Amino acid sequence: MADIYEAITKDHDKARDLMKQIMDTTNRAAKKREELFETFKLDMWSHNKIEEALFYEPLRGAKETRGDAMEAVNEHHVAGGLLEELDVMPKDSEAWIGKFTVLKELLEHHMEEEENEIFSDARKVIAKDRAEELGDKFQSRKRVVVPALTPEA
Ligand SMILES: [Fe+2]
Ligand SMILES: [Fe+2]
User: Fold this and answer.
1) How many angstroms is it from 112 CA to the middle of ligand 2?
2) CA dihedral sign, ordered 114, 67, 3, 139
3) What is the CATH number of the domain that holds 130?
4) Where is each Hemerythrin-like domain found (predicted)?
5) Sorting pLDDT into bands at 50, 70 and 90, what band is 132?
6) Total domain count for the chain?
């Protein structure tokens, strides 16, 4: 069983791996890049939304973590905008990979901040058994949302 911190970190590791795979594609392998990006986009978007609903919601309510929560949700918003822009751009260009690099750096920094700073503050606000319930919820919501949003082949 994973608590909310483990569930989020596991998801971050998956995102880091997908971003690396996308960076390794060439402009000529646009189809591969497109497929990987489609997976990454749904995964990251749902990660952020579920994280907001389950993890940042209690943090927004506590005065010691309110600032962290507001900053993080704003970063999700910026990442969401970049995901949308990347979604409609031709994938076989330097411009695309340039914009993707900006998103990758933003998200890497964001995830590190969550893991290294926000988690320790959150532990003061979210009780241990609540953190375990939230971890289960996070994983089960993620398991439902990603397939629900995936287009049929
Ligand atoms: Fe986040
Ligand atoms: Fe996250």
Assistant:
1) 9
2) negative
3) 1.20.120.520
4) 4-120
5) very high
6) 1
